TrEMBL record:
GO terms for biological process: acyl-CoA metabolic process; fatty acid catabolic process. It comes from the Eukaryota. Keywords: Hydrolase. Pfam families: 4HBT_3, Acyl_CoA_thio. Residues 207-305 form the Acyl-CoA thioesterase 2 C-terminal domain. GO terms for molecular function: fatty acyl-CoA hydrolase activity. The keyword Hydrolase applies. Residues 41-119 form the Acyl-CoA thioesterase-like N-terminal HotDog domain. This is Putative acyl-CoA thioesterase. The keyword Cell cycle does not apply. GO terms for cellular component: peroxisomal matrix. InterPro entries: Acyl-CoA_hotdog (IPR042171), Acyl_CoA_thio (IPR003703), HotDog_dom_sf (IPR029069), TesB_ACOT8-like_N (IPR049449), TesB_C (IPR025652).
Length: 318
């Protein structure tokens, strides 16, 4: 099985998959649910995006912006059960600088997840630092201070030399996600991240803007939430070889995002999603990630614990 077999489904993003219907009393209902390859449950990134959008609808977005989201998945969402997921938002705190929302998602009288979503006003001054980006695409120098390796030219070369694969879908509301691997998978070690460059193309982004019903500035954040789960769950497998034909089941137990510069997130331009795994054992893996803009600015940090079931005769210890 090739890498493309794992990631091909993530090249299609349905505009209606991001939509939420307002059903009153700070309650919102999904329109369309999606299950990715090798999973039996609704895609976790979709649930994360829904939680973020539902919480945003209960705050004054002109004054507050998201700073954190902690999701605990309680039971699997079922995309084919005939019932959509209901998101209920409760206001836990409304302060002058910070506010907190509790989001509960239910389906068929089951709790699917609970999430705490934090918002805050942007403040000036104080201390400031960030982890350096492995690559920078500004053309002058990388965020680490080294001369960059003409990454912009390399991407341009790939775009012109690689044939674009057509997305087979009966849906018209789609946005392609282009992904590039800058590392040789065979040489990945446990201390090294797996770097993926992404962007939504112009046609796809315009479709999302016109048909998702989400304001443009917020749509960048919502799509970033969707994509935050797209490769993170597999990070525990990278040190042991990926793709792995012994993988039988994978699901997320939780998902955390800390937003550092949500106002700068732009998913219609190239950005870097760096993911890695500091630990895996007992059929669980801890995965962490960092999402950078092409200028090296750290947009957000992610963390997730996953369950990974492999063939009974499979064993790999590094």
């Amino acid at each position: 099985m090739e890498l493309h077999d794992f990631l091909k489904d993530f090249k299609v993003l349905f505009a209606r998959a991001l939509k939420l219907e307002n059903v009153g009393d700070n309650s919102f209902r999904s329109i369309y649910l999606w299950t990715p390859f090798l999973s039996k449950a609704t895609y976790g990134g979709q649930l994360v995006a829904h939680c973020t959008e539902a919480a945003y609808r209960t705050v004054d977005a002109s004054k507050m912006n998201i700073n954190s989201l902690q999701v605990k998945f309680v039971s699997a969402g079922k995309s084919e059960c005939g019932e959509q997921i209901l998101y209920t938002v409760k206001s836990l705190h409304n302060g002058r600088s910070f506010c907190t929302r509790l989001v509960t998602a239910t389906q068929q009288e089951r709790i699917i997840l609970v999430a705490f979503v934090g918002f805050s006003k942007r403040e000036r001054g104080g201390i400031e630092h960030q982890m350096c980006s492995p690559f920078c695409m500004t053309g002058a120098s990388s965020a680490t201070g080294r001369r960059n390796c003409s990454i912009s030219k390399y991407i341009e070369h790939l775009e012109t030399s690689c044939k674009q694969q057509e997305v087979e879908s009966e849906e018209k509301d789609i946005a392609q996600v282009k992904y590039l691997n800058f590392m040789d998978l065979c040489n990945i070690q446990s201390i090294n991240p797996w770097d993926v460059w992404l962007r939504l193309n112009v046609e796809g982004w315009n479709l999302l803007k016109s048909r998702s019903g989400i304001p443009e500035d917020r749509l960048h954040i919502i799509v970033a939430c969707w994509l935050s789960d797209f490769i993170l769950a597999f990070a525990s497998l990278f040190p042991h070889g990926f793709p792995n034909s012994s993988l039988r089941f994978i699901t997320s137990l939780d998902h955390t995002i800390h937003f550092h510069h949500p106002e700068n997130i732009r998913v219609d331009d190239w950005f870097l999603y760096e993911v890695y795994s500091p630990w895996a054992a007992h059929s669980r893996g801890l995965n962490e990630g960092r999402m950078y803009g092409r200028d090296g600015l750290l947009w957000m940090s992610t963390s997730q614990q996953t369950v990974l079931r492999l063939s009974k005769d499979y064993y790999s210890k590094l």
